[in-house]
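Collaboration report, partner site 2.

Our partner group contributed sequences for two proteins of shared interest, and the home lab folded both. The records are reproduced in the order in which they were received, starting with the first partner submission.
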Amino acid sequence: MNRRQFTTRLAALFAAPALPASAVSAAASAPVTAPMAVSTGASSWASYLMAMHKTCTPTMLKSVLNVSEDMAQTLHSRMVSDGIIQDGNRVVREVKQRIKSALETPDMPQTRPAVADDLDALADIWFDGWFEAHADYVPNELKALRSRDSLRARLENMLETTDVVGPVGAPVGFCTVKGDEIYQFYVSPAARGSGTADALMQAGETRLKDSGVKIGQLWVIPQNPRAIAFYQRNGWDGDTVENVPLDTAEGPYLLPCRILQKAL
């Protein structure tokens, strides 16, 4: 659209002509006093820019009103103060920030169902991750029950409810659900910070919802603040600490755990 068409449409929308050249010249050369009156024409141009572009910046006013940068800034500030327009600079900043965040956010890794060829790698991830998080805080009796072979044997019965990230035979993390619970959740150190944990949590929550669970739960030892912070960031919360029955090859083992829940 050329300048003449732009002016004609503005006049039709607001029944007010663009700011006359003589008025613009006089306003630009006159000293700025407070409060400064905003002409109907300038107000109409600004309102039109808001209607067409959802924003109105001093630079846009400078162009359509043919005034100096200082005058455009003064008019803009006054119209924002009077509620004629929104702060166009803020709108532009927010749009730029959303674009920047989208560009900097890595793509979430793809999850897939676990298969038998994943068992050895999953047993390693579970064994190493469990001892990293628990070894300093649980009795030796429980540590003795957490052998790699015992975890691999349990994994064989969990494959149908387990999602993983990574190629077949070399997964880097897994999430298993059981009943209404995020049952086992571990990510290898090399994959932390890559979005793997978020993808696996999403997969686990989807499994729970698809099975009809309304309130999911998970257990975590109170001495694991890193895990608790991750779960809370994903909407899980709760302060209750109870002795819960952990599954082992020799039967349930009671251990104090913090119980977190989330509405799904």
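Second partner submission, folded after the first:
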Amino acid sequence: MSGTSGRMLTLLSLLQARRDWPGPLLADRLGVSPRTVRRDVDRLRELGYPVTALKGPDGGYRLAAGQDLPPLLFDDQQAVALVVALRTTAAAGGDLGEAAERALAVVGQVLPSRLRHRVEALADTVVVGSGEPAVDADVLLAVGAAVRAHEVLRLRHRDETRRVEPHHLLHRRGRWYVLAWDLDRDDWRTFRLDRLEPLVPAGPRFVPRPVPGGDPGALVEARFKGSTVRDAWPVAGRVVLRRPAVELAPFVGDGTLVDLGDGRSGLTLGSWSWPALAAAVARFDADVEDVSPAALRRAFGVLAERSLRASGTTSTVTP
């Protein structure tokens, strides 16, 4: 590669990495004169890169957005990260998955051999889960635009038309959600993007409300746990299980497990109701003792009565 070509690639890489570059600083980084920088910028423009000049005492340059997407330049780590992200998106299927597959084909053609081997080895050893509901790319872009513009979003959700103030887009466990203030319910709600349809035209602009607790992610996690604000289960209790901790550890989730020795384990766990917590403890298939608090002990009684009715018997049955 000639000195000019190599210098232009370096210049392009610098322009992509930072929004504004003073002319003298670019010249210093490239080891050339400001006049040479101007000539290289003109060559990039001839290749279709929209480099704009900045006014000021020192002048400068910016790689602006254009009508068409020109060739981009990535270093090795960026290229590998791009391929991994595209593979993950492709596994989701739907419009985004198909677009990711096409993008992978394009990137794969231009990867240098040293990177292609690394990426192929990664693809052979990493299994990306699939089967999650696919999100339509137009839905994702429409909701994202409403969030950014602070515009009331009219949407169809489960055969209902709702009006919401969208605040944040969140990705949780393979699914996309929008956190919004529901104007019809007068409360915060989360909506899965694969279950909604944005309606046009959009509503008026709104002033964003403060998110309870200040953390949108924590608020969404709290809502999934049946709580209102705190990222914590509404109820929690502690039991002792007659089973070694090593056997229970893979199934504890967000609970706390303590090895008490002698094949006994202390478990602290939460759930959205006391009977649900009793059922969660029962799934460990172990004798239970030292139950606290009293509300959890009563919930075990409720669960036992329900289980007897469901079995159609009036006494316990030994499995």
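Feedback sent to the partner group on the second submission included the following. The mean pLDDT is 83. Residues 294-311 form the longest helix (18 residues).
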